[in-house]
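Structure ticket #2291
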Amino acid sequence: MNLMMTILTDRELFLLIIGSVTYVALFVVTVKNSRQKVLQLQERINKVRVMQEEQLATSLQGIEANERRIAELESLMQKLGDENSMLRLELEEKKARLDYNNKVAMIENEKRQQAETVIFGSDVYLHIKKLMDGGRSMKDEDWRALEQIVNSVYTNFTERLYSLYNLSEQDYHVSLLTKVRLQPKDIATLTAHSKESVASTRSRLYQKVFGQKGSSKEWDDFVLSL
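Resolution: structure written out below.
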């Protein structure tokens, strides 16, 4: 009798097999999803790195770094004199490329400074300030107007953000207002959310995009760099 009780019935055996197959399938799916998340995170980080490199190339820090490199190249060329003409040509080519990059960067900086003046002096921005002063939130038409002027100044700003993460409407609105340098308390008013919610949104977005914990200010700095 005991021996017979230890023998699995066909039904129990079937359930055991189904359970094992299900476990293996879930394990495979979990591993696959984890790998996919890692790849997606790496892709986001690579995009961020490219954006930051592009921004650095046209920043004042980038211009100063190029100028230091140009001075180093000029010093090397002076030491070479007329010797090793091939190397001298290579150095002159590098110097010319850096000179060109700096000219482009200075033009971009000037364009951005003028463009920011356009935003802060625009009817859209002045209207938003009135809403803030009156403690009112923004309407759909206000968001569309702000989005249009921001993208006209900071080319593809919206597209760049969404290429990194599938933002919710609140995520996007907070980032859009951050881009025009509004304070968290004003962002809270304009989005009809609490200051705590706005802070949480910013720090959460940093973690989602960069794959590590970060402060709300770190997200602000990143948005402002785009």
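Closing remark: Residues 121-226 form one domain.
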